[in-house]
Amino acid sequence: MMNIGIIGAGHMAQAIGLLAIRAGHRVMMSNSRGPQSLAGLRDALGCEIGSVAEAAAFGDIAFAAIPLQAWRAIPAEPLEGKVVLNPQNYFPQFGRIPELERGEMTTAELLARHLPNSHVVKTLNSILVEDIVPDARPSGAKDRRALPVAGNDLRARKTAIEFLDQIGYDAVDAGMLADGWKFERRRPVYCVPLNMAMLAEMLTATKPDEFMPEGHWHHQRGTH
Length: 224
Known about the structure:
By secondary structure, this protein is an alpha/beta fold. The protein is built from 7 helices and 8 strands.
């Protein structure tokens, strides 16, 4: 059993929190409005609630489930030395980020720059939030979905892969944070249900100039 500190309390945070609790982990949810706003969620999920700083300190693993443009609100000090799972995607309509516009770094590298003493792992960004709970499967299930993982620390990647397995997903190690672009928004594998072999093959084949139309995943259900 691990402690999972979740920064954010929206649909993504709640879905991962639910799966983590089902897997036997302790979960603390948090948001910018404070724990008093989360009493209903505590009762519904059976989680603990706290401030953002308290959730960051609580977690053996932290899950940063807030909009990418709010990355500066993630506290660095309580996350030092910890694995921080980064599911954030870049939607320019919510605020342009020059480094991402210029292609100088990936979304996870942006967070890693803000958390230089943490082990940021990019994962859980390439699945629709409404699919997270229904697509989870027990280990060994024939129709189990795989998700990509990228991070600069091998042990942190392994920790993330183990956590994904516990909550219902296989994983493909996609390499370093700089390789995380391969499964960011509008890439071929983004939000497409794939098994391990298909995901690994598609990640390998993805080229830097390869972008898909928005919403392309709607036509890819059932491919795994």
